[in-house]
Write a structure and sequence with these properties.
It is a single chain. By secondary structure, the chain is an alpha/beta fold. The chain folds into two domains: 171 residues, serine acetyltransferase, domain 1 (Orthogonal Bundle), CATH 1.10.3130.10; 94 residues, Hexapeptide repeat proteins (UDP N-Acetylglucosamine Acyltransferase, domain 1, 3 Solenoid). Helix content is 47%, strand content 11%. It is built from eight helices and 15 strands. A hairpin with a 5-residue loop joins β14 and β15. α2 packs across α8, α4 packs across α5 and α7 packs antiparallel against α8. It starts with a helix and ends with a strand.
Length: 299
């Protein structure tokens, strides 16, 4: 291909970028990167997985006597990069006037410190998820197999980390972290979803859990389960109203089988069993069992 052709394409792409920026009220060309990087977040998560589970998700040549040194090194590298990415995200509200530019460094330091301090609790939560997966799947031979192989566990590692970032008001970083897992596993969990301990997603492909879903302890889902919204309320100007509770509440010890779709702010009561391929838009009593045919048995 000739240099002239390359130059023409470069020019056309520059004009396209300029047109998009004009349409979105961004009149200036950025002099440096303005948004977080997916590749940087992927590297952070890789480092954090190794720090959380060094002898299983760390490097293959790691020895137990070097475990603490490896964890310290991984955390240092991960948190330094996280600070850079958090600064990029926080520049966006600063540009809109929602955050003073002088406050960014202090905010970055605070959120990165809080995130680091949350990691022991995150590891403890993930241990309950791994145990639930091992105990809930007769095909699992060990907790190590579950951690190394199961897509549901990988998705939950990403979600537990992302949920912390979400609550630290870094929603873009959080969403990138969950979307990395989504791309790899086919499991789509919004970082805002609140998920209790001992959560197990078996097989997992096609699972969708919405932003305002609340899931209790010891819940088990199978593939292609949707915990979604029934409708999207509109504001007076016709725009979608954001942030409203619109996804299901699933109480403790519920089992939801493959292909079930549960929509809206409904409550699935403790210990209920939801059969495969059912469609639910109303509350389900504690202990009830719902089958595809729609029959319900009491608690």
């Amino acid at each position: 291909m000739s240099q002239g052709t390359i130059d023409d394409v470069v020019k056309a792409l520059r004009e396209t970028r300029a047109r998009w920026r004009d349409e979105h009220g961004r009149s200036r060309e950025p002099s440096e990167r303005e948004f977080p990087s997916r590749d940087a977040l992927a590297g952070i998560v890789t480092l954090l997985k190794g720090a959380l589970f060094p002898m299983r998700l760390g490097p293959p040549d790691l020895r137990s006597q070097d475990e603490d040194a490896f964890v310290a090194s991984s955390l240092r590298a991960a948190l330094e990069t996280l600070a850079e990415q958090a600064r990029l995200e926080l520049h966006q509200p600063a540009q809109r006037g929602a955050l003073a530019t002088d406050d960014i460094d202090a905010r970055v330091s605070a959120v990165v410190t809080a995130f680091a301090q949350s990691l022991p609790a995150t590891r403890a939560l993930l241990d309950t998820d791994v145990t639930a997966a091992y105990q809930g799947d007769p095909a699992a031979h060990s907790v190590d197999e579950v951690l190394l192989c199961y897509p549901g566990v990988l998705a939950m590692i990403h979600h537990r980390l992302a949920h912390t970032l979400h609550h630290l008001n870094l929603p873009l970083l959080a969403r990138i972290v969950t979307e990395l897992a989504h791309a790899e596993t086919g499991i789509d969990i919004h970082p805002g979803a609140s998920i209790g301990p001992a959560f197990f997603i078996d097989h997992g492909t096609g699972v969708v859990i919405g932003e305002t879903a609340i899931i209790g302890r010891g819940v088990r889902l199978y593939q292609a389960v949707t915990l979604g919204a029934k409708r999207f309320p509109m504001a007076a100007d016709g725009a979608l109203r954001k942030g409203l509770p619109r996804h299901p509440i699933v109480e403790d010890d519920v089992v939801i089988y493959a292909g079930a779709t549960i929509l809206g702010r409904v409550t699935i009561g403790r210990g209920a069993v939801i059969g495969g391929n059912v469609w639910i838009t109303s509350d389900v009593a504690a202990g009830a069992s719902i089958t595809q045919a729609g029959s319900v048995t009491g608690p």
